[in-house]
Structures are given as C-alpha cells and as structure tokens.
C-alpha cells in the first residue's frame, strides 16, 4: 500500500475515474492487442457503453486504431483495436564516452534508422549542436517530421530527470548541464533524459513483446562505469536526490585499485571495462594517466573477448576476474534487494559462457537462501542496443503510465 503524500497530491475530480479507466484500457490494448471492445468490457468489468465512450476518445486522440474484424461464431463481427505505432516516431540517443548513437524508431520500437558519431569531449554544447543537425536529417529522411513524439537521451552520469538536467557526468567531462532544455530548444521537440541503467530498466518495463511478469528486478550496466537500475513494485527507485543505483561504488576489494570516485576497491574499479582492460594490459588502474592511455589505445572489450576466443590465456584470466567481481556485486543486489530477475547489459554479455559459472559461484556462496542464490540472470548483448531501447522508453512509457494521484 502507498501512503498518501499530503504535501503533493491531486484531488479526485469528476474526470478522475475516466482518466484512470482510460489508462487501464490503453494498457490492456497494448498488452492484448488485437482486442475487441467486448473483451475490454469483460476484462474491466465495465458496461459496453462506458467502454465505447473511452474507446471513441482514444480513437479521436489517435492513440489506438481499428484493424481487421475478428471471426465470431454468430452475430456481428467485432472490430479489433490496436495501439497506433507505425506512424508515430521516437528518437533515442545514447551518449557514451567514445561514441554517441542515435536511433529513429516507431512507437513499437521498430528500428527505422541507426547512426553514430564521435562524442565531443568536455563540450555538451557541441554535442547538442551535432545532435540537432543529425536528428533533423534523420526525421526528414524517415518522413517522421510530423509525428515525432519526442527525444529520449541516455547519459552516463547522474541525472535530475524531472529538471532535465545532468548533474555530473565525469566520464564525459561534464559538470551540470541543462541538456533537456537546450536540446528541446534546438529541435523543437520534447526531450526526456535519464541515466543508462535506469533507462535500460525502464525499457524492460515498457517495451518489447515479452512483458515482464515480475515487478521487482534490477538492470546492471557494465560499461565504462557500473550502474544499477532498480525496479521495485513496478516502479523505478530513484532515491531522495535521484542518484540511487550507484552500486558501482560499493567497496569490494579493500586493497583494490583507486576508483575515479576517490575510494579504493570499488566494484567499478574492479569490473568496469577500463578495469578489465587495465588488468589485461598490466596497467596500474589507480594511475589516472593510464585511463587516458587506455582510451587512446582504441583497445576495447570486444577486442579483448576476441583475443580470449582465439586462445589468449591472459585475456581469459582478465575476463574471469571480472566475472568473479561481477558475482560479488550481484550477490549484494541479491541479498539487499531480492530481485525476481537480474539483467546484465554490456559488452561482457558476449563472454557470458565464460563469466556466468564464475559469477554464479560467487552468488551461490553469498546468497542467504537457496532461492535467492538461483535468481535468474539474463545477459543482454550490446548488439541488441539496450541503451537505445532505454532512450526510446523515456518517450513511450509516459503515454501508458498510470496516472499519479495521491
Ligand atoms: Zn568508486
């Protein structure tokens, strides 16, 4: 149950019931499409008249459309309803240290165009400039100028989602930056921003055919940093100052390398990409100068995994170590949050056959119950673009979300 916040609520008005039922109906269409009005009335225990009224409203707003008629054993054949997705567009942007990717997709998440460019370092204004030109070109060539519903941007850093402001993105060399307002002004489109793990978690709540049956899960991103998006009771956990999920900075090795946050032996300093590559190349990760050297070397995780596949024993050892540390990190999540499922997104997913038994062993050794020790873990390969899907979810999710009342 949720406690009513007496400092921040919306009083019920004459239209409140209608608004709640509208969102329930819309979500039912999304999950069960194609669906008939009679089926909706049955699922909602509502009269046909009320359902017809809600459906007419959603048809007029262009949220749903009428498709083919269904076969019926007798009487009039019902017309089936669908969510309108094909002629509604969304732009997703994934900003990463080295490259920024853009996707143009329809409302069902079907990819229409994908491109990427080098991220300008230490210069958020230059990034906005580059994005503005590319987004306009993408929309024009995709015939999507008219019906683009918005832009979602995923950022590696701490984000104030409500204000649309990046608070800190040390990987990019950014301090505070009004990203949503600046990009919104440049493109004339609504912009929503979020950090990567939270956006990836949101994508699993809202996109894709396999609607998740658990309302409690976590999404772990392993990339240049390590972050966690926590979903509890079907809602993202953002925390008091919207900085929750920084599990990457939990200490896991007291004598480990110095992390970019200043502490020693954080998970991130042991299992993030840079840490893994440093281990392989024999670089001292504590030395900041080596981070730059690693970036400049253009040697990446896929390169390291390719070397492991071709029989490089040191590459195998470096990845195995990452698997063990990842297992320590996941066991903290298992014990602390008891998720129904864990997703792991990032390049490490391409070496899952190697790391899974190692991280499973760490979790089994630390989990307090056998059930928790067997928490399902699903790797999500970078080739499936989880971060871009997360960016798209930032635009799509609010359309289907439950109304916030009290
Ligand atoms: Zn740290």
Q: Brief description of this entry?
A:
The strands form four sheets. A five-stranded mixed beta sheet has the order 5-4-3-6-9, sandwiched between helices.
* CATH class category label of the largest domain: Alpha Beta
Give the N-terminus to C-terminus distance in angstroms.
12 Å
Order of helices and strands: HHHEEEEEHEEEHEHEEEHHHHHEHHEH
Low-confidence segments: none
**Structural class, from helix and strand content?**
alpha/beta
The number of distinct structural domains comes to: 3
> What's the β-strand tally?
14
Q: Which compounds are bound in this model?
A: zinc ion
**Rg, alpha carbons:** 23 Å
User: What is the correct CATH architecture of the largest domain?
Assistant: 2-Layer Sandwich
Strand residue content: 15-25%
**Which of globular, elongated, flat, extended, rod-shaped describes the shape?**
globular
Describe, in plain words, how this protein is organized in 3D.
This protein has helices at 16-32, 37-44, 48-61, 124-141, 179-187, 196-206, 267-271, 273-281, 288-297, 301-309, 313-337, 352-366, 370-373, 386-400, and strands at 64-69, 79-83, 89-95, 99-106, 111-118, 148-155, 158-160, 165-168, 191-195, 217-222, 226-232, 235-236, 341-345, 377-380. With 406 residues, it is an alpha/beta fold. Strands 5-4-3-6-9 form a 5-stranded mixed β-sheet, with helices on both faces. A 5-stranded mixed β-sheet has the order 12-11-10-13-14. It starts with 15 loop residues before the first helix and ends in a 6-residue tail after the last helix. The mean pLDDT is 90. The chain binds zinc ion. Zinc ion is lined by residues 249, 259, 261, 263, 266, 268.
């Amino acid at each position: 149950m949720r406690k009513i916040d007496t400092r921040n609520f919306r009083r019920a008005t004459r239209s409140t019931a209608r608004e709640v039922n509208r969102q329930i109906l819309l979500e039912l269409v999304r999950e069960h499409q194609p669906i008939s009005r009679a089926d909706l009335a049955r699922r909602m225990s509502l009269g046909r008249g009320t359902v017809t009224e809600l459906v007419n409203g959603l048809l007029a707003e262009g949220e749903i459309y009428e498709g083919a008629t269904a076969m019926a054993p007798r009487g009039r054949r019902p017309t089936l309803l669908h969510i309108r997705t094909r002629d509604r567009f969304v732009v997703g942007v994934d900003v990463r240290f080295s490259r920024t990717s853009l996707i143009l997709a329809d409302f069902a998440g079907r990819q229409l165009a994908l491109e990427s460019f080098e991220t300008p370092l230490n210069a958020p204004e230059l990034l906005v400039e580059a994005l503005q030109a590319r987004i306009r070109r993408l929309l024009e060539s995709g015939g999507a100028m008219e019906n683009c519903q918005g832009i979602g941007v995923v950022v590696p850093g701490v984000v104030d989602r409500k204000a649309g402001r990046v608070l800190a993105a040390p990987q990019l060399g950014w301090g505070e930056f009004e990203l949503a307002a600046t990009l919104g002004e440049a493109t004339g489109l609504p912009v929503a921003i979020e950090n990567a793990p939270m956006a990836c978690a949101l994508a699993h709540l809202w996109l894709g055919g396999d609607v998740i049956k658990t309302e409690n899960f976590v999404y772990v991103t392993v990339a240049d940093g390590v972050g966690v998006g926590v979903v509890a009771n079907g809602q993202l956990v953002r925390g008091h100052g919207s900085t929750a999920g920084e599990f990457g900075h939990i200490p896991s090795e007291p004598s480990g390398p110095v992390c970019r946050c200043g502490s020693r032996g954080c998970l991130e300093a042991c299992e993030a990409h840079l840490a893994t590559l440093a281990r392989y190349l024999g670089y001292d990760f504590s030395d900041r100068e080596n981070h730059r050297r690693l970036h400049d070397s253009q040697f990446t995780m896929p390169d390291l995994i390719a070397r492991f596949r071709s029989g490089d024993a040191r590459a195998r050892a470096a990845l195995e170590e990452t698997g063990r540390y990842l297992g320590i990190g996941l066991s903290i999540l298992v014990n602390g949050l008891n998720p129904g499922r864990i997703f792991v997104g990032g390049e490490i997913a391409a070496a899952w056959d190697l790391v899974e038994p190692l991280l499973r062993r760490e979790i089994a050794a630390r989990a307090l119950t056998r059930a928790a020790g067997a928490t399902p873990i699903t790797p999500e390969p970078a080739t499936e673009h989880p971060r871009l899907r997360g960016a798209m979810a930032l635009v799509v999710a609010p359309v289907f979300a439950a109304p916030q009342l009290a």
